[in-house]
Please model this.
Amino acid sequence: MKNRFSAVSVITFAFSVLFSSQVFSQESWQLRRLVDAHTAGVLSRGSYEFDCGIYPAGNPDLGTGINFGIGVGVTNRLMIGISYGGEGFVGRGKDAKGNSMPGFLVKYRIFEENYFFPGVVLGYDHQGHGGSSDTIHFDYKGYIYKSPGFFLALSKNYLLFTKIQLGLHGAATFSMEEVQTVKWPNAYAGMDLGINDELSLVCEYNLGLNTRDPRSGKTPYYARLSEGYLNLGLKWAFSPNFFVEFDAKDVLENRKRKNGSTVGWCRELRLVYINQF
Model:
């Protein structure tokens, strides 16, 4: 009887810790993305954000790439955005190349997060990551890490020990890049951990299911689960409206070129400014 009581006490305590604050997850500022992966967070009505991402160019000869984006909360459930950038605009060299087209974003939250169920969003995002790819090195023209395209994202937030925010996230995507050849969805899983009111750690795993194995040529082969891309990030709220983000992408170095060589992990910097009209 005593052992049974102890087991019940432990289970009750665990649930009280994990589900200690429903209000916290609803009222606090939520991430709209981890590193590349979308979450169920959206901008509130009348809010806007500017972001600037600095990353290694897909072509090493072009040095550094830079991407600018703007997002607007149309309603408390709907946000839209647009982004554009290119490679070679910062650094040495005479050549510079802009993205082939702007990246468009539409994101609508279908279900709000509550005590028992996650928040759910549907959306479309045409902005890829990691620099541009070409048919010479990657067998297709687009981005090294394909744009999400159509996506469904889920997020659930918890407050651990009344101090630490923990967010669990997952997403399924269907990219329109190379869609004539690769007709297979992709998926992400990740988490964020709020250390304090300024710092948070993020981690995501891009399964890369829609990345054809470069060693297999044109055969219908897709990446294995163990060959996905692990991305890590540190987000610092420098002020209530200004955020600095340091990211490390593909730390397992699984992204390959067509000839089998490794692209290598990279370091990126992102600056985000958020305010209201």
